[in-house]
Amino acid sequence: MSGRIVVTGCHGLVGAEVLASLRHLGREAVGVGRQMSAQRPAQVIDLAGSEAAAALRCLRESGRPIDAVVHCAASFPAAFDSAEAVAIAQTNRRIDSTVIDFCHEIGARLVYCSSSSVYGRLDSTAVAESRALERATGYVAEKIWAEGEIAKRLPSYATLRLCAPYGPGQKTRTVLRIFIERALQGAPILYFGTGSREQDFVHVKDIAAAVVAALDRPTVNGVFNISGGRPITMRELGMLVSRVIADGRVVVRAADRLDPQDGWRARFDLSNARSRLEWRPEMSLEAGIAQWAQVLKEQGDALGAAL
């Protein structure tokens, strides 16, 4: 691609890494965010607002042709089955509609960051992208709708179903961040329920590599699972964090709290991304945990975190 690449959600975990990776590769990448940031300059566009379409057209006219859009912008609910999730889904639909319309209008390739949550509850079988999606509501239903609109309307697209992204730029206190913070403070690592729920964490650098692979193959359309390729239970995750950060000295035990997703699996077939995008995850979970822990120590964030 010789033209510009627009990256929405450029202040978020995934968008920031994608933008940095593209610029490191010498690509002309333009970040779009909801607000100005001194650390990460961007084009300020509220993609959910009434002026978003006009603002994107102005962006198009301000420089070289736009060949592709990497769409990372989205709002996230604290829980998928909440009233908040319904309101957030409406916002995300406005955002996604604006971006899809823009790509359709200018003929740009779209790389869309979707979510593995569209699969619902998984069993021990590795799920492929061809699996029929169940009915859903709120945030998940909107993701399914957007995936369908993209496949129906755009001649060039790649939808990436991301599973549990993580990395040093993540501000949300996810389970992995909390485990790392507790290990750095020497506090017991507590998992909910039996600790049997799985996640398959994928480092943000591996996600950025998948995005680049999708951009570099403009004739390869489809949906792709993007995960770390290493499902791990919450109990196992706690033990791994303890080993990586504290040589196993931090205690890992059950909290007095149920996990509504106890026993859920997170196993994804990555063969489609391997064969068609020539992508595979490179960052080991051990290396990613160690990297994040080091950044948190340097920033002083972990030692003062409320546990």
TrEMBL record:
<dbReference type="InterPro" id="IPR001509">
    <property type="entry name" value="Epimerase_deHydtase"/>
</dbReference>
<dbReference type="InterPro" id="IPR050177">
    <property type="entry name" value="Lipid_A_modif_metabolic_enz"/>
</dbReference>
<dbReference type="Pfam" id="PF01370">
    <property type="entry name" value="Epimerase"/>
</dbReference>
<feature type="domain" description="NAD-dependent epimerase/dehydratase">
    <location>
        <begin position="5"/>
        <end position="226"/>
    </location>
</feature>
<protein>
    <submittedName>
        <fullName>UDP-glucose 4-epimerase</fullName>
    </submittedName>
</protein>
<dbReference type="InterPro" id="IPR036291">
    <property type="entry name" value="NAD(P)-bd_dom_sf"/>
</dbReference>
